[in-house]
Prior knowledge:
46% helix, five-stranded mixed beta sheet
Amino acid sequence: DLLVQAIRYGEDPKVKAKMNEVIEGALDAEHLKEIIKRNALVDQHMGLEDLYAVKEEMEKAEARKLQPYFIRAFFTEAFQTLGGEFRSRESGRYEVRHVPAVIRERDRIIGESRTPVLKKYERICFEKQHVRQTGKPMADMIHPMHPLMHATTDLILQAYRAKLKQGAVLVDPNDDSIEPKVLFMVDHTVRESSQSGEVASRRLQFVEINEQGKAINAGWAPHLDLQPIEDYDRKLVGDILQSHWLSHNLEALALNYASQKLVPEHYAEVKGRRERQANKTMAAVNERLVKEVNYWSDRYIKLQDDVSAGKQPRMQPEMARRRVDELTARLEQRKAELIALKNVVSSTPVVIGGALVIPQGLLLMRKGETQFGVDAVARARVEQVAMSAVMQAEQAFGHKVTDVGAEKCGWDVTSRPPANADGSIKPDRHIEVKGRAKGQSTITVSRNEIIYGLNQSDKFILAIVIVDSDSHEGPFYIKNPFTIEPDFGVASVNYDLGDLLSKAVKPEQTI
């Protein structure tokens, strides 16, 4: 009616005033909030602690996301290993000049989409902002389920999966201890309880076991910070390869730890997420379908009354009744689907790979570097001084500070600013702490630390503290310290200390 009046009498000042009044009322902020509240799926209020907990999990997930850095590093190496050719073109974009026949054939066998793998791609990219560029061809974004990535991954797994189970000997260049450990890779799946048993979530988990048989969670991707052992170093630890403790049933210990600690956490996370999703969807389905069922039921009754009164309605009552039956059946079907969505079962975890991890400290000791023990103690002290300096600086800002180094989440300190006056919360500060003795010229950063920093962008801070005997300089804060991920197979990168400090600012300048 309002639209018709606007067309007929739009130039009338009185009509204009009335329309403006109606529009202003409809778009009033409080009016819109009331509509949103009335149509919300659930009336849910989260306390501040619950809100922080959800936010923390989201930030951890953001830090370890695969796209784009992990995906680009893997695809580049895997595609070239299979004989593929591609060249860098515009910033963040590449040209695939040749896709090997073996990849195209594998896609024909396992392809799950209607889009086949092509013989070549004019442009591909790994980040959304590079898909379209003015005057340039549109790029295919490579992600885990892109046909090219899917076929490449499947071929690599077929070729090398058995080697994971055979195991390897790796070196941890960042470990100053002298105790070797065994790292196990565990595959755990949560499935739907329906007959199809579709995968709801699949996760790789890592368990580390020491010589005493103590198992711990090794983190999300600890293998990326390890490097292959050199032939000479392998001879130095030949006796360890024959150690009696390695012949114990360590795989059973790893599975037992995973079943008790890691699997329940994964299952609870998936079940909770799917229950929330199902409950919200159920509320929306009920609201829509129940209204329609009630409408057509009422219509059926009225049509029957019209027929009984001798009238000829435009719609026969039987059609309305069939509509009621169809909607009722659809409602029951959706309820059954949503109940199935909530019901998930945890599969038995399976060990799919393992490696003996030799710490750098053990190699240095066996090479006869007598200073290594003294250096290890000194480094530990420097790191402790650096951690204390950073935590004190953050506490001085009124932040809640937590040492998360043992959680292996990719940074050392989480600093949480207080909430704003309106109840909104500020982003956490994730700080990677690097302490260096005065006179040192480089800082070593692991592959995971670099990629986690790139994924988080402004949330991530590299803090440097220069320690000199009983005093220290800093901390010096660097935001966005990294620009590109390491090449495939690189476990860590050495950065020039002077170059990093030239970009540093005082902590208060980052608030």
